[in-house]
Design a protein that fits this description.
- By secondary structure, the chain is mostly helical.
- It folds into two domains: about 140 residues, no CATH class; about 45 residues.
- Helix content is about 85%, strand content about 0%.
- The chain contains eight helices and no strands.
- The longest helix has about 40 residues.
- The termini are far apart.
- It is a multi-pass membrane protein.
- Pfam families: Chromate_transp.
- InterPro entries: CHR_Transporter (IPR052518), Chromate_transpt (IPR003370).
- Keywords: Cell membrane, Membrane, Transmembrane, Transmembrane helix.
């Protein structure tokens, strides 16, 4: 028998993800910012640390990052039903919108108004992503070791173009190494 509170949360999660799937532009990072606002700040269902952990695991898995994170979050809050409904909620709007857009693609493709709207959307998404990153930074970077790992990750990603999966694996190894060093010194 399914726990009614988990079932109610799963349904709430579906409608939340369905709504932001329709109205949030900029991909996974913009959706993550909305998750931070809704589930950490407003509802207080999870902490920033938990969202950051879910994000780390979701990014480390193959597939669509935000679908992975939604699945982990949904499972955490509503079991298997929560996982299924969260992924369905986040992907269904894109499927529906793209189904309609593909019917009219040739008319949209060369419309100068559509092109200008997309330029504006892309420019406005960057601050949203940056805002989410700055909020999560407080949970992720707590000491000098965190600053070192984060700085190294930025260097590897932006300057050297290293694959994100490799950067996450290096960060995990650095965390383990630093934990071992700290335990050895204590």
């Amino acid at each position: 028998m399914t726990d009614p509170s988990k079932q109610n949360k799963a349904i709430t999660i579906f409608f939340f993800f369905f709504k932001i799937g329709f109205f949030t532009f900029g991909g996974g990072w913009s959706i993550l910012a909305e998750m931070q606002k809704e589930f950490v700040e407003k509802r207080q269902w999870i902490t920033s640390e938990e969202l950051l952990d879910m994000t780390s695991v979701g990014r480390s898995l193959p597939g669509i990052m935000i679908a992975n994170i939604c699945s982990i979050f949904g499972y955490h809050m509503g079991g298997v039903l929560g996982a299924v409904l969260s992924v369905l909620g986040i992907t269904l709007p894109s499927f529906l919108i793209l189904s309609v857009v593909t019917l009219f693609y040739t008319q949209f493709r060369e419309n100068p108004y559509v092109a200008k709207v997309l330029v504006g959307i892309r420019a406005s998404v960057v601050p949203i992503i940056l805002s989410a990153a700055l909020k999560l930074r407080k949970s992720a970077i707590r000491d000098k070791a965190g600053i070192l790992i984060a700085s190294s990750a930025v260097l590897l990603s932006l300057v050297l173009g290293v694959n994100n999966v490799f950067i996450v694996l290096l960060g995990a190894m650095a965390g383990l190494l630093l934990m071992g060093v700290n335990h050895g010194l204590s």
